[in-house]
Amino acid sequence: MKQPAAPRPRAPREEAGEPAPHRPAPPARTARPRQGAPDGPPPSAPTKRPEAAPRTGKSPRTGAPARTGTTPRAAGAPGTGPTPRTGEGRTVGQAVVVGRPTTATSAIARTAPPKVAVLSTGMSERHAEQKAMRRHRVTRLVIAWGATAVVVAAVTWALFASDMLSFDADHLVVKGTGTTVDMNAVVAVVAKLEGTSLALVDISDLREEILQVPNIRDVSIQRQWPSGLAVDVVAREPVAAIPVEGGMALMDQDAVVVDTVPEAPAELPVINIPLTGDDERTLDAALAVLKSLPDELRAEVASIAAASQDAVTLTLRDGVVIEWGSSHDSALKAQVLATLRLAEVSKGAAVFDVSAPTFPITR
What we know:
The protein is α+β, with helices and mostly antiparallel strands.
């Protein structure tokens, strides 16, 4: 015959006089006392059940009230509680819970480490789809780079190696004004590039070569795809004649001799300044004055003389002498001269001194 369980020893705080919280009564069954626990009363002695606290629920299997909390045991006190059978409760930490878990035990259970999830079949399929998409993107990238390389290679071949974009002399256009440039010489210089790709034609080198043709002052070159070139020539035109040994040197506005002829053309003024190094500045000043004149006045000039670069004198075809001075304030000097030649008191003068345009003099 099994002996009844011995009464549970009081906690230390109960011995100190502190009121102990109400605890539910243990199940009405006997349990084998733990080793070292004090012997219980004889079987014939009834065990007085302490006053039960208000019940909060019953165990679905034993009918005993469910625990709402645990009272910490005194250090070193042996346990006397019953040991639950397999399937009647679960262990949370060091507490034994019998029956349905309460709110406190549920909170403890929720803090337990989560279980490792196992990839489902759907997740594996998703990873397979992602790998397939990455392979597809790489494939498209490789195809795009390959197509780009093919296009670049084709364009490079067409520009530099193909005859489709090579220069054809039949598509050369040479134009320009003036009569002092041999256009056939310009065509001959450019025609040497026939068969060369337009992309390989060095415009700067070609321009320098064309400028070596006599009497070319400037030139511009443009590519005309797919196989042509356009050359625009600016010729040097003579603006004055200068006496030289053996004839007259025709000179342009930059003091460059364009040609030498026995006699000066009737439409060009004669500059009576020798072509020597000492008179270079004086010659430049005379050409600058001639360039600054209005077209109507320039056409009336028969000759130009200069003692220095600040003392340029013009002689018109009707014999009127104009003391111009330097090339500064040429526009104002031209306006003053035109006014004096139209005024009643001065239009018959033989000499007009406009070297100081604010104080003109007529004689």
